[in-house]
Amino acid sequence: MIIRKNTFGMGDRFAHQGHAQLKAVTSARELGLDIHPVWNKSNREHLLVGTKPDDLRAEADAATAAAGWTDAYYVDADHIGIKTVDWFLAGSDFYTLDVADFTGKPAAAEDIDAFAADMARYHGDLTIPGIAAAVRIDDATIRAAAGKFLFAMQEAGRIYRYVAEKKGADHFITEVSVDETDAPQGPVELLLILAMIAREGIPAQTIAPKFTGRFNKGVDYVGDIAAFEREFDEDLCVIAYAIREFGLPASLKLSVHSGSDKFSLYPIINRLIKKHGAGLHVKTAGTTWLEEVIGLAESGGDGLALAKDIYAGAYPLATDLIAPYAPVVDIDIPSLPSPDEVAGWSAEKFAATLRHDQSHPDYNVQFRQFIHVSFKIAAKMGDRYTDALKRFEPVISRNVTHNLLERHIKPIFG
Question: In whole angstroms, what separates CA 90 from the centre of its chain?
């Protein structure tokens, strides 16, 4: 299965926004933007919400059928490992291999030696087309990268081969994620990771590196924008070089994880993918859940009351709710408004505080991140929450579609 050039990953915690999400993509297509949808959901999210991977497939199939969509679309088994992959096999055709737990663990000494010997031909100053200065590679550099990533890429190979055995190698797309590491990968390290992937026989079609700066959930990028631009440009050059050098699929492209709401980066990404003629995968997730809560609040009455109850239920559990997402949120719990304060907010105040409009005086980045990690509270509400999604669907779907189309797809791909 060959991935299309530009793909857009859309998470949907409660599997109710497939139609609204697809409308954003079909509207973009009407504007001449050749975007293909990917519905993604992780094992952790399925467990927290009480859904299963087949539910996501059913949502994607129903949305595309209702819209008369006949082009490619995908269902992503997001951040899976060998222990969690089995129940994704039937419904998924896109597998994001998450080997973060294996990063930094040493491979066998003989495997490191073999990799170092294989890469010895690159010793010295290596010129990668598009990167102004030659990059320096020596044995120590190669062994350092192997010490950190070789065992993890071997595990990625094990997962890939398992899925290929079960599904057939031509029936799915493979993404390798190396974004959950302690430091961003420079061009040399990314090149060596791609060499490891190729040696494992993984036909990776997207690679998700770790970029400089903070990619916190649901909020804008925090970091050195110039450094990100340089890294992104170099990564595109490295991928083009690795495709030719290591025989990786010609469709291999960058994947930006936690890509939702990184508004300050979108003009850079847009410009650079056009400069290189490169494809792109952007993975968004919780931004749709946030639009659901905004839509509930805007609906007033019972919808607003429900939104306030989610916050009131989450507030005393803040430490526990934040803990699983600690690497990708920056929330100062004492600075959050109290539930009593939020209880007095109007529909307009609640929505403006949560909506990602940085120019609005009510916007609160702490509040937004906290609601992002609080979907477990809505899940515990069961039918009360999902019935509200149906009842207030027109307002919610309008917010979901507008957010994805106007704030994300157009700035990235337009």
Answer: 22
C-alpha 268/C-alpha 233 separation (Å) is: 9
* Per-residue model confidence as pLDDT tens digits over 307-329: 999 999 999 999 999 999 998 99
Backbone angles phi, psi at 239, to 5 degrees: -60, -45
- Contact between residue 116 and residue 80 where contact means Cβ atoms under 8 Å apart: no
Tell me the C-alpha distance between 414 and 29, whole Å: 10
Distance CA 190, CA 145 (A): 9
Question: E strands along 158-214, which residues?
Answer: 173-178, 206-209
Six token digits for residue 107: 């491979």
Distance between CA atoms of 190 and 137, rounded to whole angstroms?
12
What is residue 90's DSSP assignment?
Answer: T
Give the Cβ contact number of residue 66 at 10 Å: 11
Per-residue pLDDT, averaged over 81-98, amounts to 97
Q: What is the pLDDT of residues 390-411, one digit of tens each?
A: 999 999 999 999 999 999 999 9
Upper half-sphere CA count for residue 172 (Cβ side, 13 Å): 27
Go through the domains of the chain in sequence order and give each one's CATH number.
Answer: 6-103+148-286+407-413 (3.20.20.70), 288-400 (no CATH)
Q: Please write the tens of the pLDDT for every residue from 139-169.
A: 999 999 999 999 999 999 999 999 999 999 9
What mean pLDDT is reported for the chain? Answer: 97
